[in-house]
Amino acid sequence: MKTAAKTLTPKLVNKLWLALIVLVVMIGMSYVGITNYFASKHNQETIQRLNADVANHVIAEKFQNASPFLQDGSVNTSLFGDLMHDMMAVNQGIEVYLLNETGEILYSVVLDHSENTPAKNVSLPPIHSFIENKGEKYILGDDPRLPGEEKIFSAAPYSVDGRNGFVYIVLAGKKFQEVSETLMGQYFAKLGLGAIVLTSIFAALIGLLAIWFLTKNLRVITNTVRCFNEGDLSARIANPDASDISIFANSFNEMADTITGNIDKMKSIDLLRRDLIANVSHDLRTPLAILKGYIETLQIKKDTLSENEKQEYLQITHDNVDKLSKLINQLFEYSKLEAEQVTPVKEPFSITELSHDLIVKFKVIAAQKQIELQIDNPKENHIVFADVSLVERALQNLIENAIKYTEPKGKVRLSLQKKGKHVEINITDTGTGIPLNEQAFIFDRYKQVDKSAKKQGSGLGLAIVKKILELHDTTITVLSKPKEGSSFIFKLPAYQV
User: Fold this and answer.
1) Contact 148, 44 (CB under 8 A)
2) How far, in whole angstroms, is CA 270 from its chain's centroid?
3) Could you read off the pLDDT of 84-134 as tens digits, one per residue?
4) CA distance 73 to 90
5) Which of 60, 465, 469, 477 falls 20 to 30 Å from 341 in CA-CA distance?
6) How many helices (H) and strands (E) does the chain have?
7) CA-CA distance, 492 to 422, in Å (whole number)?
8) How many angstroms separate the CA atoms of 163 and 96, rounded?
9) How, if at all, do strands 383-386 and 411-419 pair?
10) Which domains, ranges and CATH numbers included, belong to the chain?
């Protein structure tokens, strides 16, 4: 229990103890009440069964030698008074009533029979039922002294001098009830006290075990959460499905995996950002150094350089400015994609027409390198649902990349093919290819396969393509072998007319 107190909040433990105490008190009260009810019922049934023939004995012994009625038809009160006093001397809880055949009380020493007192009646159905069952069944009848209440009784029919009726004997009269209630109160006070003491002892023991058992899994989870909070990112709840609170356990494990994944991703992003800054700084430094060198040469030797040399220097300067501009634009474009500041505006458009426009745009560049650039299935019109400007940018980067890495007299093909609910776009070249061990990294920022001077680039083209396709919920696949060329394949959802 000390362990539970250390690992769980005091409020939770206090609530568990409070719930246990309330439960014990309610069980104890219910036990005493139920015991009281059934004990009282058992006691009354026992008394009734033992005294079932009392009324018959009274009639057999008293009415044989003397009549309960006088010659004028009135009740023989002296006989009945002696009878009542004799019986009450033996048992003060007994009350004897003489009834006529309609249930009206003719006489009883415990009642006031003055002229102003209205006659009382006893319900006959219970009496008939008692006589029919010969007193072997537990039956309650009216209590003449306490209207509305029912008591155990004994009854027997009589027939004397042409008069019929019943001798009705209440076996648990007012005196009996007073004594019984006093004794029962004392008995159940002792029983209740003993029950509470014993129950409290056992409840305390069971409570300790129950709280320890019920909070076992919660303590494990709490300790795991604390370890994770203190820096142990590998802390996980073992066998979460076997826990009593599996939903909580699984939720924590999933949350911990997400947090760890985000931390790893942040570390990776930070590392890549450092590499990106270092590589971009290098790429910026090179053209800037070239620009500075040629501009200084033009300034120093402007009077000695020929016109052809000046034009050559200016062209080199112009090319490096273009290179810087392209690199800066790519960095700006990629930073927006990385920061998720670009939201695709999807609409249906013809990917076939877009491909034709790009082929025409790059044919001049391809012709300069003696590369054959063409589109397969040019007459089949394919409509896709995507962002036309972003898809154009992705295709432009892929075609430009294919031309860059394809040797003279090579081929670059763009093919479109309908596959189910998608259109597959494939850009294939006959270039240098990509080593198998580097294919998984070509879409990373600033990852270059070929480091030769002629083919150095910013290394952001394919990374931008990947980000654009991720915005369209699709992926790009590369198939390549060294010296056999490469194929870049991705799919876009076809527009259903």
Assistant:
1) no
2) 36
3) 777 766 666 778 888 888 888 888 877 766 665 666 888 999 999 988 888
4) 30
5) 477
6) 12, 12
7) 5
8) 18
9) unpaired
10) 2-44+181-214 (no CATH), 52-170 (3.30.450), 246-335 (1.10.287.130), 344-493 (3.30.565.10)
